[in-house]
Design goal:
This protein is mainly beta. The protein has five helices and 24 strands.
Length: 468
């Protein structure tokens, strides 16, 4: 039954995936090819002659509904969090029975950057290649009653025989493989100023996607024998998640994306350019422009009924998501198991965003970076939305050692503050932008961690700037 409920949850109330910015590492002058993910122009005229990302990854979890008490999570208790999530005995909810229609938001994100690189091919010209597995999305404005019922698998008798509504939940989530080609160059170099620009062109291979929109659901769980719907409409779409069991079936569509970026640097004197000793650096970039056309083993559906009853819902068992689609169709359309399907494909937009980066070189080894990311909405169209992020990251940076203290605010229909720390030692880096819950400072309802290894070689003329 748990599989059934989670499929229903994904279709209606959802699980959210969302991108992250890795503030503690991507603003660094030694970020290498990872810096191009925040601004494609960053690798032009870099301190690095070439850089190879061997393997890196990050995970982000943030929400306003679920939490783990700080007393239940050991310091940096990653194992406890994973085991508690699997066994479902760690998290509780903020559900308020006196306010069952209160709105909540959930986010979850993961990214793995595989073997990737950039290299200088001519004076002030760089090219790069990235291979990544990404997931991104959002669920917004889910009502507490739907979230709590899903959390309890609709088996909490305290919520039975009560009519609930959800007229606001919206889900957009997808996972894909991304193959990026990057080019950056120095556009202008005059006096004490330099302008760099870059572009990334990405081929996107859709792995899976799900969406729900136009939510207008009124429902009542009578008991384990009946779930009643009235005056309900819902549009949803999904790829066949059962295909993920087979490697050759993990391609559900394809698309193209692009990133654009420009960076302005100001130096005290022309001599400082040879040392890359800028006074300040300001960048602006457009990220994740594009979309994926999911058109293989994919379906879109519309549910509508003035009255519908899902009898014996607790006894229902599905071996694949198609059976769930057919069952819901039969419930809403008087036994017609195919009536709900409206199409066999849909486009999902990427989490497009505008990013502004400003980096102030305070002293020889000390910097302070300001990062702003403003996500774009997609109106009534299907597409994942990047959250808004406002971050300030002071850092101590040398050639072989670096430590930063990212402080940020994230907004996804709700403001949350975050604090973290990131460290780079030689070619290794690790850290996070939201470590309060894992550090037992507060209850765990958000986390943002990343780690990786990359190998780089410095430009000879720039080795003398930031030695250890």
């Amino acid at each position: 039954m748990k599989k059934t409920v989670w499929l229903f949850l994904c279709l209606h109330s959802g699980l959210c995936l969302l991108a992250q910015q890795d503030l503690g590492i991507q603003n660094s002058n030694y970020a290498g090819i990872r810096g191009a993910l925040l601004n494609p122009g960053s690798i032009a005229d870099s301190r690095l002659k070439w850089d190879v990302n061997i393997l890196s990854g990050d995970v982000v979890f943030a929400n306003t509904f679920l939490y783990a008490p700080k007393s239940a999570v050991p310091f940096l208790g990653f194992k406890k969090v994973i085991e508690g999530s699997i066994h479902e005995n760690l998290f509780d909810t903020h559900f308020d029975p006196q306010n069952p229609n209160k709105l909540y938001n959930l986010t979850l994100s993961t990214e793995i950057l595989g073997p990737s690189f950039f290299v200088k091919v001519a004076k002030k010209h760089e090219i790069g290649l990235t291979i990544a597995a990404r997931a991104s999305g959002n669920v917004r404005n889910i009502t507490g009653n739907v979230g709590q019922n899903a959390f309890d698998y609709f088996l909490n008798s305290n919520n039975w025989n009560t009519t609930f509504q959800d007229q606001s939940a919206r889900v957009n989530a997808m996972a894909w493989l991304e193959y990026g080609l990057h080019y950056a160059t120095v556009i202008s170099d005059r006096g004490g100023n330099e302008i760099k620009g870059g572009i990334s062109l990405n081929y996107l291979q859709g792995v899976g996607a799900i969406y729900a929109k136009n939510t207008n659901v009124t429902y009542k769980v009578v008991d384990t024998t009946a779930m009643v719907f009235s005056n309900t409409t819902l549009d949803y779409g999904r790829t066949d998640f059962d295909d993920l069991k087979n490697l050759h079936d993990r391609r559900h569509g394809h698309g193209f994306g692009a990133d654009l970026g420009v960076t302005f640097l100001h130096f005290n004197t022309d001599e400082d350019k040879g040392k890359d000793n800028y006074l300040y650096r300001i960048g602006i970039s457009l990220l994740d422009l594009g979309k994926i056309n999911f058109n293989r083993n994919t379906g879109s559906y519309h549910l509508a009924a003035a009255s519908a009853v899902f009898n014996n819902w607790h006894e229902a068992s599905f071996t694949n998501n198609k059976q769930l689609d057919q069952t819901l169709s039969a419930v809403f359309y008087n036994g017609d198991s195919s009536h709900s399907q409206t199409g066999t494909s849909f486009h999902m937009a990427m989490p497009a965003a505008l990013s502004i980066q400003a980096d102030w070189h305070i002293d020889q080894h000390f910097f302070a970076a300001l990062t702003i990311v403003k996500g774009f909405g997609h109106g009534d169209n299907v597409g994942v939305v990047s959250p808004d992020v406002y971050g300030l990251t002071p850092r101590y940076e040398t050639q072989w050692f670096e430590v930063s203290l990212p402080m940020s605010l994230i907004y996804y229909n709700h403001w949350q503050s975050r604090m973290g720390v990131a460290v780079r030692i030689w070619y290794f880096f690790f850290g996070g932008d939201a470590l309060g819950g894992l550090a037992k400072i507060n209850n765990l309802q958000q986390a943002d961690v990343y780690a990786g290894i990359h190998y780089f070689v410095l430009e000879k003329s720039k080795h003398t700037v930031n030695n250890f």
